[in-house]
Design goal:
The structure holds three protein chains of three kinds. Chain B is an alpha+beta fold. Helices cover 46% and strands 12% of the residues of chain B. Chain B is globular and about 70 Å long. Classes of the chains: A mainly alpha, B alpha+beta, C mainly alpha. Chains A and C meet through α1, α4, α5, α6 and α8 of A and α1, α4, α5, α6 and α8 of C.
Chain lengths: 312, 553, 299
């Protein structure tokens, strides 16, 4: 009895020892990134305590008075805060869905473009807007969408009346999402194209032999193969769900559309106009992080449960 | 050149020292006393696109060298920032507690550094070292410039004053449009609206298209001189805190008369006098429209001639602009709204051992700008450093303008032109005035492209004339200034943005067509709740303590 | 008979789809580049036309004044240099750390039992941050990296987002390849360099692209960590220019506006800032292969 146990025990030990000797190079490889993250991410993370303090720089992080959740209370009791969080969430989710959705659509479309030149060229062109910052793009859009800008010129030529895009809540939301999709979709498209490029061609052969046409090939071969990438991108995007794009909104919004386009970041920026209020912005940042963390975890869990896919 | 400079400096120094040791100044120390051992001052400087000759920069140039030699100090430029980001950098420096020795702060930063105990009192240094001229100049309006930096009876900063007319509205109009529609400059509300109508629907640019609007009101207009000018025409001040009959301060914009202003602006918008897109057009974008000849009335400041009107004239040589006083109160009088025109202060960090260095530097700057060394200074600016033009004043780290200087120069210039340029004595001793005179002459002499001269001419002859002849000159009792001149405390800083956002919403909603009574009433209720009451409390607390100091009756 | 009919019908349906496909893709591509053409046109137009918003897709009053002015300031040359330096150093550092971390984390739990810990460790950094001030104090006061390129490169050395993407691509490398190599005696370093990296070339090139754009466009850290505008990368400098356009309250602001607020100049700067980075993707694309040849599995 004892000897069997010992043998089994020793076997396990040898197996785990073997595992460790295989794993230690992996630990070694993790070491440099971990050190960098410790220095540049975790040490500054200690500064999150500012959110709970009446921060006075001369007293520093550990000398300022502790005021607990007062900053958060102040934040949540601000007028319209509920509306602002709602705006942030809806804008962010709409942006995520459209940017990823259109990225996927165009990845599929472009992968069907046989002409190599047009294939490559259109990829570059569609990715183009992603390279340019919102500060510039925002101003260009303000010009183009103004009452005497290009878009209204076209509308007038077609017999319609000029639309004040930037002054109308409904239109403005549409503009925000549309221009954001136009700008960011290329990024997602590139990832999807990379994934599509990695699909084993034999899978397509097999499908063709089974009599599947192009459409069914797309549905039964391409989509399942890049579904993991889609889930991955959606999950990662949810981690920053309360970010919603400060730069774009800040440049393009104005007093007329503020009800539907004020987001957390633009609001905090306004509040910090007279007094930089780092404690408040740290508190808001913490709030955003927590919500993002919850959303990300939820998405990870759902992907794990339903699609049996471990994202990381 | 340097040798001549040294000789000149030594001579001047000698004279100053001798003068300083005269019995009359026996009480205070020499305002320009050099240090025995070189004192290093760490500073942050803003880099603009300033012209420097070969070998000079903001780190080291003729003026900084002069200052360093005169006072036996050394500037150590630890930070150089791109202009416009100075405020942000100081915010970071404050938050990370790594400050320069002497630096500039705005209103809210001033409060923060005093509260956080990051700067030291300048009272002793000021009493002992500030020159008589500087003391006198900054005492304008009962020392109101010091109201925000005084704590427990001691001053903690040196006010970098701006011109006393900084916030006063001046009306700039397309004179050629006025002529085309055969109207005179508006003097009251009725004539103003007439001109607006003509400028909007009367095809003032004569191109047969209905493509103009009257007033260059932009998205920042609800907080700028546009609203103060419009409310002036209606006969009351706006966006300010005044003393009520019961002796306490109240906010003007929750009073029912503001509804008149809102209605006026709503009408102007619906009539097309204000751009239909004003809400998404900031000042910069609006200036393009002015330059493109789309609008004809700009409400600006005493210096505005060098901005939009100049842009317009550069783009269209046929455009003509003229400056006028804004239309008066309904009864013909003027009660212009002004500011306590100090928007930034200089402070000395707590650990710096030589706070009087700041005072001496400002004394020295004054001597360079307007005093004993001004001939040399302006001579350089007109001669070797002519290419630097106005930017020459950015050579040293800190500069400021005596608040009444521009007004006086303009008055002197007008006197000279009034007597047909026969007697230049009013401006002969004033190198800055002489410089302005020269460029104005260049323009008047027929060089129509000399727009720089033109802007000086318009500003000095007309914009300043409005202030002198209509507004009340330098008599501060003629102007309406906010009665709250205290610091922006944390309580206030937290509530002001909310209250301001509410007010902006009010104006923008109504201008674009909302019901005046309803929207206004909601505004008032919310204003009280959202922070207006708390702000009123703080303001009144300060006012009760300080009224007798700054408004002695 | 049936099969041939199907194939003919399919190719007809597919051909119709193809036509629409080409049309949509070409139209959208044009839409994507139209604003840039507009910006280019404005930068080459006369000031008055540009200011009056008359310029469409073609310059009015063609001139290159904006570019001569932009290049005449030595600021732009030193900023360009800084941007290039930053991209080269930053991308190298990022790719190094990304690969180092993605490889171990792509292993299964059996092979790398502690992976969960590392994953959580990294994901937390993606979600939580101390904010501006603590980072600033660390980099400036303690590490004293101001005015160096390292202040711009090191804080973002481990990009969690890219790392996770690469991790997923590594996972798609078929286990059989790894197993056969292991049997042949290959250790991790050999596996990584001889098998994973070559097979993930597409993914790596994609990440290089993302890293390049990220570093090229990042402007905020340049603003706070550089204490002399000569050290500003181009994106930071461009940002300071366009930010100034928002605030015209004093005479000083106005004079500044007169000097720099020309649409043409701003657009010229934008073009100069965009062109280098835009060339990266087509350059990388030449190395992209579509489809993997996995003949090594069979037999």
């Amino acid at each position: 009895m004892v000897s069997t146990d010992l043998r089994v025990h020793n076997g396990k030990k040898r197996a785990s020892a073997a595992r460790f000797s295989r794993a230690w190079p992996l630990h070694l490889m993790m070491l440099p990134p971990v050190i960098m993250l410790l220095i540049f991410s975790y040490i500054p993370m200690a500064g999150i305590v500012i959110a709970f303090q009446d921060f006075i720089p001369t007293k520093g992080f550990f000398g300022s008075d502790w005021i607990g959740l007062e900053n958060f209370q102040y934040l949540f009791m601000l007028p319209n805060f509920g509306q602002i969080v709602l705006n942030t969430l809806t804008i962010a989710i709409e942006k995520i869905v459209t940017a990823i959705g259109f990225g996927l659509l165009f990845a599929l479309l472009i992968s069907e473009i046989g002409n190599r030149a047009i294939n490559k060229l259109s990829q570059s062109l569609i990715l183009f807007p992603w390279f340019i910052s919102w500060v510039i793009l925002g101003n260009v859009f303000l010009d183009v969408l103004s009452l005497d800008g290009s878009v209204n010129a076209i509308i007038n030529a077609l017999g319609g009346e000029s639309v004040f895009f930037m002054g109308n809540n409904g239109w403005f939301r549409f503009i925000l999402i549309f221009t954001n999709t136009w700008k960011d979709m290329g990024y997602n498209m590139v990832i999807f194209l990379t994934a599509i490029a990695g699909i084993n061609p034999m899978l397509y052969e097999a499908a063709k032999i089974d009599g599947a046409g192009k459409l069914r090939q797309a549905i039964h071969v391409t989509m399942p193969s890049i579904l993991p990438s889609v889930i991955l991108l959606v999950t990662l995007a949810l981690g920053g769900v309360l970010n919603a794009g400060f730069d774009q909104i800040f440049v393009m919004y104005n007093s007329a559309v503020i009800d539907t386009s004020e987001i957390i970041d633009t609001y905090i920026y306004k509040l910090g106009f007279y007094d930089a209020q780092y404690a408040l912005s740290t508190a808001a940042g913490l709030f955003k992080s927590v919500v993002g963390c919850v959303c990300l975890s939820l998405s990870y869990y759902l992907a794990h449960r339903w699609a049996n896919y471990r994202i990381f | 050149m340097k040798r001549t400079l040294n000789v000149f400096l030594s001579a001047v120094l000698l004279v100053t020292l001798l003068a300083a040791s005269a019995p009359a100044l026996a009480e205070t120390a020499d305002p320009l006393e050099p240090y025995d051992e070189t004192v290093t001052i760490q500073i942050m400087r803003e880099k603009e696109n300033i012209w420097f000759p070969e070998g000079e920069s903001i780190y080291d140039n003729v003026i900084t060298q002069f200052m360093e030699e005169t006072l036996n100090i050394e500037f150590d430029v630890q930070w150089a920032v791109e202009s416009g980001s100075y405020t942000e950098q100081i915010n970071l420096a404050i938050a990370s507690n790594s400050l320069p020795d002497i630096f500039e702060v705005n209103e809210s930063q001033l409060y923060q550094v005093i509260r956080n105990d990051m700067v030291q009192s300048l009272q002793d240094a000021w009493d002992e070292y500030a020159s008589d001229e500087v003391k006198e100049i900054l005492s304008y309006n009962n020392n109101l410039f010091f109201s925000k930096c005084t704590q427990d009876g001691e001053i903690y900063a040196f006010p970098r004053t701006d011109d006393f007319a900084s916030a006063m509205p001046i009306m700039f109009i397309r004179q050629d449009w006025l002529d085309a529609v055969d109207l005179g400059a508006p003097t009251d509300l009725e004539s103003f609206l007439e001109v607006c109508e003509a400028f909007t629907n009367g095809d003032p640019d004569g191109n047969g298209k209905d493509d103009t609007f009257a007033l260059a009101f932009d998205s920042t207009g609800t907080y700028s001189v546009y609203t103060t000018a419009l409310s002036h025409m209606l006969g009351f001040p706006v966006n300010t805190w005044l003393e009520g009959d019961d002796g306490t301060l109240y906010f003007t914009d929750i009073q029912p008369e503001v509804k008149e202003l809102l209605e006026l602006m709503q009408d102007m918008y619906s009539n097309g006098y204000i751009s239909q897109e004003y809400i998404s057009t900031n000042t910069d974008r609006m200036s393009y429209l002015v330059a493109a000849g789309k609008t004809g009335i700009v409400i600006g400041y005493f210096w505005t001639a060098l901005y939009q009107p100049q842009m317009s004239m550069a783009a269209d040589p046929d455009a003509e602009w003229m400056a006028y006083p804004i239309p008066s109160y309904p009864d013909g009088s003027y009660h212009i709204q002004a500011d306590n025109s100090c928007y930034s202060w200089l402070v000395v960090s707590k650990d710096f051992e030589y706070p009087e260095a700041l005072i001496k530097l400002q004394n020295l700057w004054y001597e360079l700008w307007r005093g004993d060394y001004s001939d040399w200074y302006h001579g350089l600016n007109a001669g070797e450093y002519a290419q630097a033009q106005e930017d020459f004043k950015y050579y040293p780290p800190f500069w400021w303008d005596p608040p009444l200087k521009n007004f006086n120069i303009a008055a002197n210039l007008r006197e000279v032109y009034a007597n047909g340029k026969t007697d230049l004595s009013p401006i002969a001793d004033d190198p800055e005035a002489m410089k302005a005179y020269e460029v104005m002459e260049e323009y008047l002499g027929g060089d129509a492209t000399q727009l720089y001269g033109w802007s000086h001419w318009l500003n000095n002859m007309y914009a300043w004339a409005a202030v002198a002849d209509y507004y009340g000159g330098t008599d501060s009792s003629q102007y309406v200034i906010s009665r709250y001149q205290g610091p922006i405390t944390s309580t206030i800083a937290r509530r002001l943005p909310l209250v301001n956002a509410l007010r902006t919403e009010l104006f923008d909603k109504i201008i674009m067509g909302a019901d005046v009574d309803e929207t206004f009433d909601t505004f008032v209720t919310q204003w009280h709740k959202i922070g207006g009451d708390i702000i009123a409390e703080e303001y009144n607390e300060w006012y009760a303590e300080n009224k007798s100091v700054y408004w002695p009756e | 008979m049936r099969k041939i009919e199907n194939r003919i019908r399919e190719s007809l349906g597919y051909r119709v789809f193809s036509v629409f496909n080409y049309a949509i893709v070409i139209f959208w591509s044009f839409l994507c580049i139209a604003p840039f053409i507009h910006m280019l046109a404005v930068s080459l137009s006369s000031i008055s036309a540009a200011n009056a918003n008359e310029v469409g897709l073609w310059p009015i009053g063609f001139n290159i004044d904006a570019y001569t002015q932009a290049f005449s300031e030595n600021q732009i040359l030193s900023s360009l240099k800084q941007s290039f330096l930053r991209v080269i150093a930053g991308v190298s550092v990022q790719m190094l750390f990304t690969i180092l971390a993605a490889y171990p984390l792509s292993k299964e739990k059996e092979e790398f039992p502690q992976r969960k810990f590392y994953v959580v460790f990294i994901v937390i950094t993606m979600l939580f941050s101390g904010g501006l001030i603590p980072c600033y104090i660390l980099v400036v006061n303690y590490l004293k990296l101001t005015n160096t390129i390292w202040a711009l490169v090191l804080p973002s050395a481990v990009p969690a987002f890219n790392l996770i993407i690469l991790l997923n691509f590594f996972r798609q490398v078929p286990k059989e390849i790894e197993e056969s190599a292991t049997i042949d005696g290959a250790g991790h370093s050999v596996l990584l360099t001889r098998i994973y990296l070559p097979l993930s070339k597409n993914a790596l090139l994609t990440l290089v692209l993302f890293a390049c754009v990220g570093h090229w466009n990042a402007w905020f850290d340049g603003l706070i960590y550089m204490r002399d505008p000569l050290f500003y990368p181009l994106s930071t400098y461009l940002r300071t220019l366009s930010d100034r356009l928002n605030n015209v309250a004093t005479m000083e602001d106005a004079r500044l506006m007169m000097r720099i607020s020309k649409r043409t100049l701003l657009m010229a700067y934008t073009v100069i800032c965009t062109v280098p980075i835009v060339c990266v993707y087509p350059f990388l694309q030449r190395y992209v292969k579509s489809g993997l040849v996995l003949g090594s599995i069979k037999g």
